[in-house]
Design brief:
Layout lengths: L2 H26 L8 H38 L9 H30 L4 H29 L2
Helix pairs in contact: 1-2, 1-4, 2-4, 3-4
Length: about 150
């Protein structure tokens, strides 16, 4: 398996673990029913912001640890250049990830248009962000294994 394939697999697993563990952590702190709408918006706003920060920090730490473990186990360094294939795969992965997120964003706005609770919009946005991250990494893994 190449470096890029291993990195994609680690990214997929870490994204799933980060999202699930943070969601379980925040679910326990979910406010009771009947709270004021400002309290509910504050909860969901903090959920999104903290998830974003935790996810970024965890991905950085996991990437550093992955590179250290990769270097120790294989004796190779991380590739320092990206050829045309790498760039093309990266672009396809970004395209697919953005496409999934845009679909999620439109679904979130549609949930508001059909008068669903605001919580539904936040849940759809959060889940679509997670799925877009996973879709992007799965696309990379697929194209590194099968080609473009």
């Amino acid at each position: 398996m190449t470096y890029q394939e291993k990195k994609s697999i680690v990214s997929i697993i870490s994204a799933i673990l980060i999202f699930v563990s943070f969601s379980v952590f925040k679910y326990v702190r979910y406010p009771e029913e009947g709270l004021a709408s400002t309290e509910m918006l504050r909860y969901w706003g903090s959920f999104v912001l903290v998830l974003t920060l935790v996810s970024i920090l965890a991905h950085i730490v996991i990437s550093i640890v992955f590179n250290i473990v990769f270097r120790i186990t294989t004796g190779e360094k991380e590739p320092t250049f990206a050829d045309e294939l790498d760039k093309q795969i990266e672009l396809k992965a970004h395209r697919n990830g953005f496409f999934v997120f845009i679909i999620g964003f439109l679904l979130a706005m549609a949930s508001l248009a059909i008068e669903q609770p605001v919580q539904m919009m936040f849940v759809i946005l959060i889940v679509s962000g997670f799925i877009s991250d996973v879709a992007s990494n799965v696309t990379k893994l697929y194209h590194y294994r099968r080609g473009v």
